[in-house]
């Protein structure tokens, strides 16, 4: 009994409730005429799409910078890489590789500046990160109009300048990962092997990094900065590194998202993209200053599972789509829960 | 030895830095005005309209700042309560000033409850009130949508069918507030130099300012300032810190609810699912433009901020069109500036807080050297 209590305590009530909720959705689904294998397939696809952006939260949580509400900055680096890759006429698999390569310098430079900024505002990183994200998205809205892109598949047809709000990735890097070694079971279940493998690879690299000397130093900075300084770690440097990593993962994350989704969303597209990623990792059991790869996997599965299941199940039961409202309440409720937990208030 | 003393140059730089945001905005507006092609009379009218429309909401932000809780992003809670009041008012068909008063009466208990809850949560998240209140805004927005989009018309009776979506429940995306449109603004409106001035609205805002000034001097106001200065010292002095903080949020939320009703009576339409989300951001940006910081804000900041911020808002689309040939660009520019100014103000505040701590140490060292306690 005490063991169960301990488990519940360590796992946290919100996660158990969300897990049970998702489980009940899956149980109800067949009775209201929903194909479970389609739902499972959708959940896995969404997991692959969003996984890396959730993973992007890990380095900054480890180094004590809190939740990366400034993820849109990384997404912008990814958008720049993606659009440049198309602009330079790369097609197929090469375009995806080039998109990653081209976005890397932007991610490093933006992340470096962002990291330097966060080092000057220790203690209120999260609020400032939110607004760094917002203002960079708003700034890029101006830039998407002004930058000298002229590839016909990306700019507005009648003006010849200014990027469109959505750009199709078809013919470029559409499904390059998802279709790699893809297999299906039955009519309704397809497994995007390449995308999941890619996530696994990045997650493994992240895990391996956290076990190197630098990675351990990062954890030390996050859990006890005074101790870290005493052992000769340059705190600011490590924090900046973590922010650069997070920004770069955000860039790769959005590219993976786009290759599955099929569209590049510019302008206000990345505006609220940080919130789903933040709540996913929190649902997975992470807190403001502690996160593991397992948290990422569990959280993304649970969160995306709910996002896939609620619209269809709710629609069949009560003939209304309440999924958007449920998403807002669950994801923000989760963030609130994490922000208010007493144990972390003394960070 | 005199090297350590703060020089006049440092003082001027300090003052410039303190007012960096308003100065920057003044310059942007000065550049933008000639390009926009608007007459001064038109701009004057716009500023008066916007002062009467927005000031009440922005003043609602002052109380939590006094209590050291930073910018209350949770003011959207009050805005939602105000909107619920307005929806009922339209449904019951009460018009004009009595309708507004009714909406205020309905909004008060809702705001008070939401504010109390917000305050409770913020007490659990001391040190990161701003980001928490920001997320509370999103969270309650979900609950608001649940009630207004699904509950109203099905669980909560709504008689007026023009309010309800065709499917039979849920409120429409826009609610026409024609019955109270400018009800207060046109009461006692006077014309001066070709500019129409909504005297009654301005009078109410003036009364609120007097209330704030008076409130600062009351026992509760003093307690709040003490809590804002240092929670531990305040606690040692016998002030109920948690209680005081909750009260400050409750007051702010109730005022924000009234402010939203004033704002919407000027606009004349309610965007049921959007109006409240933007209002928090614009109010906070305007206050910061007026030179307020996370820890200090005065009534002067409110009016300077509304004027400058909204001047920029009016001027930037046409100016963008003249300068670069694209009005859309001006739109994006003002969105960027709104977010950018909040970012800059937050960053400057944090940096200044640290520098002040460092400078305090320096001045203390200077004092000690002067009084001969320590050898230089």
What is the strand and helix layout of this fold?
The complex is a heterodimer of chains A (347) and B (376).
Chain A: H1 2-11, H2 13-28, H3 36-55, H4 57-62, H5 71-87, H6 92-120, H7 125-146, E1 166-168, E2 183-185, E3 189-191, H8 193-210, H9 213-223, H10 225-230, H11 235-261, E4 263-265, H12 274-283, H13 293-318, H14 323-340
Antiparallel strand pairs in A: 1-4, 2-3
Helix pairs in contact in A: 2-13, 3-8, 3-11, 3-12, 3-13, 5-6, 5-7, 5-11, 6-11, 9-11, 12-13, 12-14, 13-14
Chain B: H1 8-18, H2 20-36, H3 40-59, H4 62-66, H5 75-92, H6 96-124, H7 129-151, E1 174-176, E2 189-192, E3 195-198, H8 199-217, H9 219-229, H10 231-236, H11 241-267, E4 269-271, H12 275-289, H13 299-324, H14 327-370
Helix pairs in contact in B: 2-13, 3-8, 3-11, 3-12, 3-13, 5-6, 5-7, 5-11, 5-12, 6-7, 6-11, 9-11, 12-13, 12-14, 13-14
How would you describe what is shown here?
The complex is a heterodimer of chains A (347) and B (376). Chain A has 347 residues and is mainly alpha-helical. Chain A has a single domain (12-338), classed as ABC transporter involved in vitamin B12 uptake, BtuC (Orthogonal Bundle), CATH 1.10.3470. Chain A is built from 14 helices and 4 strands. Chain A has helices spanning 2-11, 13-28, 36-55, 57-62, 71-87, 92-120, 125-146, 193-210, 213-223, 225-230, 235-261, 274-283, 293-318, 323-340, and strands at 166-168, 183-185, 189-191, 263-265. In chain A, the strands form 2 sheets. Chain A has a two-stranded antiparallel ribbon. The longest helix of chain A has 29 residues, at 92-120. Chain A is globular and about 65 Å long. The two termini of chain A are 32 Å apart. Residues 343-347 of chain A have low confidence and may be disordered. Chain B is mainly alpha-helical. Chain B has one domain: ABC transporter involved in vitamin B12 uptake, BtuC, CATH 1.10.3470. Helices cover 72% and strands 4% of the residues of chain B. Chain B contains 14 helices and 4 strands. Chain B has a two-stranded antiparallel sheet with strand order 1-4. A two-stranded antiparallel ribbon of chain B has the order 2-3. In chain B, helix 2 crosses helix 13 (299-324). The longest helix of chain B has 44 residues, at 327-370. Chain B is globular, with a radius of gyration of 23 Å. The termini of chain B are close together. The model of chain B has no long low-confidence stretch (mean pLDDT 86). The A-B interface holds A 69, 117, 120-121, 123-124, 126-128, 130-132, 134-135, 138-139, 141-142, 145-146, 275, 320, 322, 324-326, 328-329, 332-333, 335-336, 339-340, 342, 345 and B 121, 124-128, 130-132, 134-136, 138-139, 141-143, 145-146, 149-150, 324, 326, 328-329, 332-333, 335-336, 338-340, 342-343, 346-347, 350-351, 354.
């Amino acid at each position: 009994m005490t063991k169960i209590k301990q488990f519940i305590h360590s796992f946290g009530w919100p996660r158990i409730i969300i897990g049970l909720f998702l489980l009940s959705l899956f149980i109800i689904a067949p009775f209201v005429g929903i194909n479970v294998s389609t739902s499972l397939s959708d959940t896995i696809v969404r997991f692959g799409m969003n996984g890396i952006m959730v993973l992007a939260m890990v380095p900054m949580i480890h180094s004590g910078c809190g939740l990366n509400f400034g993820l849109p900055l990384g997404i912008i680096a990814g958008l720049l890489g993606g659009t440049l890759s198309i602009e330079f006429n790369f097609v197929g698999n090469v375009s995806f590789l080039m998109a990653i390569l081209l976005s890397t310098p932007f991610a490093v430079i933006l992340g470096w500046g962002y990291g330097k900024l966060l080092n000057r505002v220790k203690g209120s990183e999260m609020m400032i990160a939110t607004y760094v994200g917002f203002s960079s998205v708003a700034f890029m809205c101006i830039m998407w109009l002004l930058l000298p892109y002229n590839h016909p598949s990306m700019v507005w047809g009648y003006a010849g300048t200014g990027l469109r709000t959505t750009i199709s990735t078809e013919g470029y890097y559409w499904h390059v990962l998802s279709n790699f070694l893809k297999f299906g079971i039955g009519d309704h279940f397809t497994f995007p092997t390449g995308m999941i493998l890619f996530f696994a690879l990045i997650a493994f690299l992240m895990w391996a990094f956290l076990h190197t000397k630098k990675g351990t130093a990062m954890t030390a900075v996050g859990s006890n900065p005074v101790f870290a300084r005493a052992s000769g770690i340059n705190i600011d440097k490590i924090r900046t590194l973590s922010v650069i990593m997070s920004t770069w993962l955000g860039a790769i994350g959005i590219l993976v998202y786009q290759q599955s989704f099929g569209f590049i969303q510019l302008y206000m597209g990345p505006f609220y993209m940080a919130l789903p990623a933040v709540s996913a990792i929190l649902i997975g059991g992470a807190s403001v200053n502690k996160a593991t790869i397992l948290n990422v996997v569990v959280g993304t599965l649970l969160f995306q599972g709910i996002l896939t299941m609620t619209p269809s199940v709710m629609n069949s039961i009560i003939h209304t789509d309440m999924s958007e409202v449920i998403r807002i309440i669950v994801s923000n409720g989760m963030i609130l829960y994490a922000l208010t937990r007493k144990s972390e208030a003394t960070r | 030895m005199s090297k350590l003393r703060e020089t006049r140059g440092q003082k001027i730089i300090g003052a410039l830095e303190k007012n960096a945001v308003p100065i920057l905005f003044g310059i942007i507006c000065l550049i933008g005005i000639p390009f926009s092609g608007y007459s001064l009379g038109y701009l004057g009218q716009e500023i008066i309209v916007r002062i009467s429309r927005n000031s009440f909401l922005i003043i609602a932000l002052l109380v939590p700042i006094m209590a050291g809780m930073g910018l209350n992003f949770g003011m959207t809670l009050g805005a939602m309560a105000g909107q619920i009041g307005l929806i009922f008012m339209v449904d019951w068909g009460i018009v004009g000033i009595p309708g507004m008063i009714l909406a205020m009466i309905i909004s008060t208990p809702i705001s008070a409850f939401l504010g109390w809850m917000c305050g409770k949560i913020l007490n659990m998240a001391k040190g990161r009130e701003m980001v928490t209140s920001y997320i509370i805004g999103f969270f309650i927005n979900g609950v608001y949508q649940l009630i207004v989009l699904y509950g109203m018309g099905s669980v909560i009776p709504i008689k007026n069918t023009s309010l309800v979506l065709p499917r039979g429940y849920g409120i429409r995306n826009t609610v026409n507030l024609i019955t109270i449109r400018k009800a207060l603004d046109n009461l006692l409106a006077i014309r001066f130099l070709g500019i129409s001035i909504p005297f009654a609205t301005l009078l109410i805002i003036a009364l609120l300012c007097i209330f704030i000034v008076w409130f600062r001097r009351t026992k509760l106001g003093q307690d709040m300032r003490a809590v804002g200065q240092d929670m531990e010292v305040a606690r040692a002095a016998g002030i109920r810190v948690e209680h005081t903080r909750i009260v400050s949020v409750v007051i702010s939320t109730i005022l924000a609810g009234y402010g939203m009703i004033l704002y919407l009576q000027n606009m004349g339409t309610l965007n049921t699912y959007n109006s409240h989300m933007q209002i928090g951001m614009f109010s906070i940006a305007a206050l910061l433009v007026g030179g307020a910081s996370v820890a200090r804000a005065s009534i002067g900041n409110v009016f300077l901020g509304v004027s400058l911020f909204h001047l920029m808002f009016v001027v930037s689309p046409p100016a963008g069109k003249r300068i670069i040939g694209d009005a859309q660009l001006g739109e994006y520019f003002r969105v960027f500036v709104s977010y950018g100014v909040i970012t800059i103000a937050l960053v400057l505040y944090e940096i200044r807080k640290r520098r002040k701590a460092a400078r305090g140490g320096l001045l203390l060292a200077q004092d000690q050297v002067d009084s001969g306690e320590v050898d230089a």
